[in-house]
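Hi P.,

Sorry for the delay on this. The queue was packed all week, but I finally got your sequence through. Input first:
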Amino acid sequence: MTGPRAIRGQRFDRLDALRGLAIVWMAVYHFAFDLNHYGFFQPPYRFFHDPLWTVQRTMILSGFLLCAGAALAVSLDAGQTWPRFWRRWAQVAGCALLVSIGSSFMFPRSWIFFGVLHGIAVMLVGARLLAPLRGWLWPLAAGCIALPALWRHPGFDAPWLAWIGLVTRKPVTEDWVPVLPWFGVMLAGLAGAQWLLTHRRAAFAGAVPGVLRPLALLGRWSLSFYMLHQPVLIGLILAYTTIRA
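Then the structure:
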């Protein structure tokens, strides 16, 4: 038994607000990263090792992927067709390509070959195919999350296989979001949203307090915000250093 379908174009403000919160947190994190990169913090922070930053990255990324899985559930509930899915997917994949190109100029030795947008693009296809399994998504999600901790192999360290995630050493790159374990997080978001849409739709689709509406609005433009925020932040830092000099 399923609940009423979402109306195409209907917004779920609570989901948008969660996505908005994630991207604001991400922007703050990236601003700190940029300040560190340009030498504003002395001694510099170790972003890839200090728990203060690695835990934040894990939480931000988990929020993104949970929201991505939930958004897919909402789209399917509204009757999303494969052509409509591919149109949205092409936007994500195109932006992922732009990130790779841009990062190759800024970090030629550690450019982003499989970052968050690359991961989302690949995982969305898998999640779309597995969505009809519904309740079976939970054990699949748990398995994806657990597998890299249980088994890895040096064969996956090769650059053309590192995107899978079963590596024995992290590749040299500024951002790396492999399919495993992160696909499990997206599946958890998909499964959780499917359950809420069926059993607790009002809780999932209810309005947000007025103070959170800006976050909900921002969450509707998350991909655009993601693509623009780093050039803006870096531009502001460079402008400040130029003026100060």
